From TrEMBL:
The lineage of its organism: Bacteria, Bacillati, Actinomycetota, Actinomycetes, Micrococcales. Coiled coil: none annotated. GO terms for biological process: L-valine catabolic process; thymine catabolic process. Keywords: NAD, Oxidoreductase. This is methylmalonate-semialdehyde dehydrogenase (CoA acylating). It comes from Microbacterium marinum.
Length: 502
């Protein structure tokens, strides 16, 4: 379908088919590498969301009662489709998000891991059984789905973040309404269609596109039992407060400002490679990106030199052209990120590599800022305190371990952090002392594998369940404890006291 602007319109996916809903509103989808509008996306009204939730509620009885084997069978088929067609999905990611193709394939690989975990996780849907807790009495637990759940995802991982939640929510027997980022929504549509091809019944997974109106409708709908959110901290806090006030279970993953501490005994080449990969991969638009390098004074000059040398070799440009780094998501975001270079200059920091000078390998008028390295950033500067979410790596010089740790502890965020050192004692101390949810030891982006769980501390996660892994199953299931006695006639009789064991 096309609209007045003659670009295709991406519809919602409800009850196993495209659906336009009632809203006349649409939003533009850009290719950030060219700056051109490539399509429009439907923006749902709250009534549209109501219809999707209703369809999900209708589909619940059949899906919840399908055997674990049947639900896992769908997941196996989806795994095969996703693996066979991942290049197609990667091209969608590059076209709408801008990340380079190799990075897009990496994103899909991390999502695929969760799908594979869900395929083999029947043991996480098992209850427990205690035989003869009292004479003739057994107690056991059932793990049942929560019901209809809402998933609200950010722009920066349009495939991976939905795939953190969908496989687990679905295999556990829930039905889902997904509201992806309106900036790069096509990946979610692709995933929903692939699930349909894998045999997922209509209504079990619905995708509703939209903005705040659609999100608020999910948060307020009485039939939605749980909400999984990933996005910026102010919105995560809002989601948590509003949805939990409505009695829903909520996990709301927020923003980050990840520090990488480099001690003097670290391998500086390894640390420089890691800082560049983790600082500039995906143009710094990763919640686990390293944005602050805490360099101990004695090695800071050498380390900054090595990083600058490496940055000079990076190619920035269209993600389909074999470049290292792509554009930022929107023109407004590019301008905002570039604005921090002026702030750095005004605050007395030293710009070592200036991304504003970049000449991208691209056509058109994309949203470009090259890799930027800023040294001697004062910790009072907004460059240090704000989540910039772009290709800007700030260096803060510290006297040693204690000062580095104190800075990480003072940050309101606690998503990821890393220490680079060859001193096992220092690394062990760091992993135990630091108030951050995911810690790397000589690993700059410590994203846990799918059979652990992903999530930060402090203002990086509101709620008490992390994403995927065992905590994902805990979030998407409700435990029911059954106390059962198969009657033995010798145990009858009246007794109005609170039951005691006998
Ligand atoms: P965002 O908070 O702007 O948007 C996230 C989602 O919320 C989108 O679906 C959006 O439509 C919706 N939304 C936006 N404003 C809203 C409002 N006022 N009311 C209701 N809903 C609203 O985030 P983004 O810019 O899409 O993504 C980048 C952010 O996500 C960064 O802060 C990044 O650190 C964070 N992030 C965190 C993690 C993590 O695991 N902690 C992972 C990825 C991204």
């Amino acid at each position: 379908m096309t609209d007045q602007t003659s670009t295709p319109v991406l519809e919602h996916w409800v009850d196993g088919a495209p659906w336009s809903g009632d809203s006349g509103r649409t939003g533009p989808i850009h290719n950030p590498a060219t700056g051109r509008v490539s399509g429009q996306v439907r923006l749902a009204t709250s009534a549209d969301v109501g219809v999707a939730v209703e369809r999900a509620a209708t589909a619940l009885a059949g899906w919840r009662d399908a055997s674990i084997a049947k639900r896992q069978g769908v997941m196996f088929s989806f795994r095969e489709i996703l693996n066979a067609r991942k290049q197609e999905l990667a091209e969608i990611l590059t076209a709408e998000h801008g990340k380079v193709l190799s990075d897009a394939l990496g994103e899909i690989a991390r999502g695929l891991e969760v799908v594979e975990f869900a395929c083999g996780s029947g043991h996480l849907l098992k209850g427990e059984y205690s035989d003869s807790v009292s004479t003739g009495v057994d107690v056991y637990t059932l793990k049942q789905p929560v019901g209809v759940v809402g998933v609200i995802s950010p722009f920066n991982f349009p495939a991976m973040v939905p795939l953190w939640f969908l496989p687990i929510a679905l295999v556990a027997g829930n039905t889902v309404v997904l509201k992806p980022s309106e900036k790069d929504p096509t990946a979610s549509d692709w995933i929903a269609r692939a699930f349909a091809d894998a045999g997922l019944p209509g209504g079990v997974l619905n995708v509703v596109h939209g903005d705040k109106e659609a999100v608020d409708a999910i948060l307020d709908h009485p039939t939605v039992g749980a909400v999984s959110f990933v996005g910026s901290t102010p919105i995560a806090r809002y989601i948590y407060e509003r949805a939990s006030a409505k009695g829903k279970r909520v996990q709301a993953l927020g923003g980050a400002k990840n520090h990488m501490l480099v001690l003097p005994d670290a391998d500086l080449d390894l640390a420089a490679d890691a800082a560049v990969n983790a600082g500039f991969g995906s143009a710094g638009e990763r919640c686990m990106a390293v944005s602050v390098l805490l360099a101990t004074e004695s090695i800071a000059d050498a380390l900054v030199g090595k990083i600058a040398e490496r940055v000079a070799t990076l190619r920035t440009g269209d993600g389909t052209r074999g470049c290292d780094m792509g554009p930022l998501i929107t023109r407004e975001h590019r301008d905002k990120v570039a604005g921090y270079l002026g702030v750095a200059e005004a605050d007395g920091a030293e710009i070592v590599v200036d991304g504003r000078d970049v000449v991208p390998d691209a056509d058109g008028d994309g949203f470009w800022l090259g890799p930027t390295l800023i040294d001697k950033v004062p910790t009072s500067s907004a460059v240090y305190t704000d989540e910039i979410f772009g290709p800007v790596l700030s260096v803060v010089r510290v006297a040693g371990y204690e000062e580095g740790l104190a800075l990480i502890e003072a940050s309101p965020y606690g998503n990821g952090t890393a220490i680079f050192t060859n001193d096992g004692g220092a690394a062990r101390r760091f992993q135990r002392e630091v108030s951050v949810g995911m810690v790397g030891v000589n690993v700059p982006i410590p994203v846990p594998v799918a059979y652990h769980s992903f999530g930060g501390w402090k203002a990086s996660l509101f709620g008490d369940a992390k994403a995927y892994g065992p905590q994902g199953f805990a979030f998407f299931t409700r435990e029911k404890a059954v106390t059962s006695r198969w009657l033995d006639p010798s145990h009858g009789g009246l007794n109005l006291g609170f039951p005691q064991h006998d």
